[in-house]
Design a protein that fits this description.
About 30% of the residues lie in helices and about 30% in strands. It is α+β, with helices and mostly antiparallel strands. It has a four-stranded antiparallel β-sheet. A hairpin with a 6-residue loop joins β1 (about 1-10) and β2. It is extended. The two termini are about 25 Å apart.
């Protein structure tokens, strides 16, 4: 199976590891304007102290505030290491192809 996507968002890994989260949307959805718009409304969090911030971050990472980085449904996310990211030279708006195939193994 091969599909064409558009890069709609690039985020640093939330756990601080040397990875990048690349969010993709199908090209046809991008052309039709069916992308969910990310608004700062419900995902904006205010904190008065460090304890509140840590509690809020734990909720966000657990999916209580829209998941990691507030990623919307209908998107595909890839976690790639920094070396691959630099090698590919990806930026928002680039078209990419993903090909998935099942490996047929004999025996074990």
């Amino acid at each position: 199976m091969k599909k064409e996507y558009v890069v709609v968002r690039i985020d640093a890994s939330p756990d601080g590891t040397p990875y990048v989260i690349v969010s993709l949307s199908l090209t046809k959805d991008f052309k039709e304007g069916n992308l969910p718009q990310s608004s700062p409304g419900p995902n904006v969090m205010g904190f008065s102290n460090m304890d509140d911030m840590m509690k809020g971050l734990n909720k966000m990472f657990a999916g209580g505030m829209g998941g990691i980085g507030g990623m919307q449904g209908g998107m595909t996310a890839l976690k790639i290491d920094m070396h691959e990211y630099k090698e590919l030279g990806l930026s928002v708006g680039d078209k990419v192809n993903l090909e998935l195939s099942k490996v047929e193994s004999l025996g074990v």
